[in-house]
Structures
1.
Amino acid sequence: MPVTSVSSRAPRTRRRWWGTLSAVAGAVLVAIPLTMTAEASVPPPDPGWTTVFADDFNGAANSLPSASNWIYDTGFGYPGGPGNWGTGEIQNYTTNPNNLALDGAGNLKITPQRDGAGAWTSARIETQRTNFKPPAGGAMRIESRIQMPNVTGAAALGYWPAFWALGSPYRGNNWNWPAIGEFDIMENVNGINSVWGVLHCGVNPGGPCNETTGIVANRACPGASCQSAFHTYRFEWDASASPQVFRWFVDGQQFHSVSQNQVDATTWANMTNHAGYFILLNVAIGGAFPNNNSGTTTPGPGIVPGRPMVVDYVSVSTSGGGTTTTPTTPTTPTTPTTPTTPGNPGNAYATIQAESFGQQGGLATQSTTDTGGGQAVGPAGNGDWASYPNVDFGSTPGRQFVARVASGAAGGVSGLVEVRLDSRSNAPVGSFAVGNTGGWQSWRTIPANIGATTGVHTVYLTFTSGQPADFVNLNWFTFGH
């Protein structure tokens, strides 16, 4: 949900205005993901497609949706993340059946409520699974049949229902949005008869996805209004095409698409080369998107509580290709294990101290309070770099990059830490995005995928941002298989 007039939710992109996403599972987390078999009310997949996840929300009235399929987000933000979920929305998310419950007739209801003191509550859920993506050379569909809250005009001013997906690296790292990608499959505000589809990517603000707005399109629901009837909202990621393409549909009618060649190769890789995506459903009250589409602060004085978003089912299906592989989680060192000397880092899979660079541009060494002692480099900003010669990846390909970083960057300032091999002008083999972590000595360990790498290389770490301000300190980094 970006903060612009058109749409968006910066993770909710919603949390996009937020510049960075906050992330990690909400207060309630069930550790074992489970895929349900599609039930009768979930439409069978089209010929050539296979259902890989489905929930038709069958169950007793006033019960919660399956904890095997869903995490229940609670409160005013992810632990350690921005307040108000990064978007300015004002509600408190709960698991109270008044806010989140099956209706006993095969639907899920997410219902905003307001108490006598004027405080709002609502609900937000996200899938346990975080690996929804197409098989190599295939395609994926994420779909839901939804009736938006049936309220319009002044009574709807501040309603913000959404059905969307976030890149898996967001879970466990509150600072990598929008680089990890966000697909807003259905967003709506203020009871307007329109569905917004949005892609968030790159850096915030600006970048290839024009953050915090995102790459956006919208249209009225076909036939009956979005509020008065159920409509089917679908997102497709077609990796069988060249270039690949994202597509958005309502009731089978395409209204938005983004092609791979509309963004640079690094941006595309950052949002597609990780394990996949997780799916979210929520109804927010107030925030940047409703404000920007009304020209006023929401919720408005005439808003009424108690109008639910009703969800019939959620399904994910895939077509073609081979078996989707999930990247392994890198082994992340908690403290440096092998010392490195300036200009001779050596083993790629040992901890490489940031200050052991051979050459650098724009950086300085500094003391650090981080565990393990040593020195850090930074603060780094757009165009800064450091090189580490003779890094040996061996004959088994390295596929992971892990770095220890901290940032006291101002709100809305973020950038990319990129890995390049043998030349600063070569394309990055991997990267992650980072913004404010709570301070220049507030350290976080952040993982990222890289292209398979073997042999001995000079590793270049480059720092790229859409703003001139410094955005990160670096203490150490390493690689993994």
2.
Amino acid sequence: MSDPVNTTPRRALIVIDVQNDYDGGNLAIQHPPFRDSVVNVARAMDAAAAAGIKVVVIKQLAPETAPVFAKGSHGAELHPEIARRKRDHYVEKTMPSAFTGTDLEAWLRANAIDTIAVVGYMTHNCDLSTVIHAVHMGFAVEFLSDASGSLPYANSAGYASAEEIHRVITVIFQSRFAAVLKTADWVDGLKTGTLPERDTIVASNQRALARNAA
């Protein structure tokens, strides 16, 4: 199936898991720093509301004994900057993708949404899962890279810093799955009608080969 091309996209802003456990809790976001990225999430929400774009807030929940996002815990609650802002729809989930086991797709279809702009956490987990899931269902996707974030991992496969994880995922997004841009550019685009740049796997690869050969 070909990618959707929207001259006048019908957007919804999808705010994924901006919860207290990511703000210095047991899954503290490191890159970009949470204190900076959450400001951009709030900015995107305000801009969406001003432009008449519907806002969907997603919340991850886990069993009461879980180390993060445990039901009823402070860490599972929405960050105050998100909780106090207007939203048009609210979704609770238990899996990485915001579409799995929820009514998100049905709600987007019912509201004639063809493009989702994704913000929130984590870039490499719930954002990644939601973005890819959305593309497979035919939605166009935008990803605000400074309104999201990652943390470092070390396991039997190796080590990756938060910066590496976030950077690599955004490069992969831009090659096929989403238009990647900064929050300020997204907000400006809402005002001017300018569509964000999209790319392809082949073009991204050819640029890399040319760069390596230089």
3.
Amino acid sequence: MQHIILGGGCFWCTESVFLSLAGVISVTSGYAGGQADNANYEAVCTGNTGHVEVIDVVFDENIIGLDTLLDVFFATHDPTTLNRQGNDVGTQYASVIFYTDDNQVTTINNKIDTLKADGVAVVTQVKVAPTFYPAESYHQNFYANNPTQGYCNFAIPPKLAKLKTRFAKYLK
């Protein structure tokens, strides 16, 4: 088992994408990268804590590799906008990858170099994993538990459609 922490905008969106993948054991929404020891949704939403909305993805590398997870990550959010994903604006929506071991950073940097060589102006930050703070329980598995919520209905279905089109062979 491995884990990696990914920030690609609203954690409800990224969580719903990664929960759909075979080999992903668990996805926990939360916060990382900030100064406060008591990250919570209300504080992080102000953009003043330095935290990013992230997901902690635990995966079985024998079923799905980090390279594939990164392909999904870069395909299902916009890695070219600094601190913005669609209508979500602020440092809490940064595109960031927090790696959990040195082998991961090599794979991540190679993936970003390939994207840049293909003309993608990637601004995704790559950092060693800081303390991860799980989000409040009502944020966990949010889309599955709140499928009619307005934001979810607007933002998540296009990401899942892209996932099904481009990565069907990796779905549960």
